[in-house]
Amino acid sequence: MRGENSAEREALIISQGDFLIERHTARAMGAAHWHDHVEINLLLKGQMTYLFNGRQEHVEAGRLVLFWAAIPHQTIEVTPDTPLVCIYLPLVDFLALPINRKVRQSIMQGRFLNEMQPQPANTILIPQWVQEWQEGDTVRQQLIADEVKLRVRRLILDTADEHGSSARKSLATPAGPAVHRAEMLTDLINTHYARPLSMPALAELAGIHPSTANKIFRDVLGISVNEYLTRYRLARAMQRLADTEEPILQIGYSCGFASVSRFYDVFKQRTGTTPKQFRASFERK
């Protein structure tokens, strides 16, 4: 069990968007959470089920998973006393990787990458990273970060030819009605995020009363529909700032922000930088 000071220090690193690798005992979470990283997880034994983007994703030991952690996620079922390694890769570092663009975009749009087969090497190498990260100097820590990026590139290369990981049947238990409705709402947001999308309009598309839709969303994902919509729009804007040379004004409007000031305010509030500064820092990297 990690000490309180260690946990607080790791929480601070995550909140600041820095690279981190740590190991702890996995537990079911009371609510979904999110942060500004691409997250890579490895179960060392047992099984667990994520609720990610309104869907259940079942994970077995030895298989790396990767997802865009700005999308709300939550562990809902975990084998007792299950050791879990979590790697938090800053978004800018992920976007800078020379990887398949379509796969990268699909991750930014909510794809959950899950290795098809357990890899024995994972359970040897990755715990070693944890130990060296905790005990090593800055030079060794940088080496580990570089090795993680190479491993991510291999994971994405291995899955680049898959025909939609989200289309594979989940091995989890069947979802309840609330999860199915939340899944429908996230699908609608993911499809219609670029247009003006009020809560009543979204509920009408889903065939659900607005108050019911918002309650379901909060119960399943732990946030409001509007909060999810804002985060999804922001994630798409960040992806396009990194992937394209489109004018920033055009990106803001085409990602559903009603005005330039609204786009800049949300971007600055959520990322600590402006869209222009974000693009410039990515180009330098």
Key phrases:
285 residues; five-stranded antiparallel sheet; three-stranded antiparallel sheet
Q: Can you walk through the features of this model?
A:
- Helices cover 52% and strands 16% of the residues.
- The protein is built from 12 helices and 8 strands.
- The relative contact order is 0.13.
- The strands form 2 sheets. A 5-stranded antiparallel β-sheet has the order 1-7-2-5-8, sandwiched between helices.
- α6 packs across α7 and α6 crosses α9.
- The protein has 285 residues and is α+β, with helices and mostly antiparallel strands.
- A hairpin with a 2-residue loop joins β3 and β4.
- The chain is globular.
Number of helices: 12
Strand order of the largest sheet: 1-7-2-5-8
SS-based class? alpha+beta
Q: What's the β-strand tally?
A: 8
The Rg value, from CA coordinates, equals: 19 Å
**SSE topology string:** HEEEEEEEHHEHHHHHHHHH
User: What is the 3D shape?
Assistant: globular
Average pLDDT over all residues = 83
What is the helix content? 40-55%
Main sheet record = 5 strands, antiparallel
Poorly predicted parts:
163-175
Q: N- to C-terminal separation?
A: 36 Å
Strand content: 15-25%
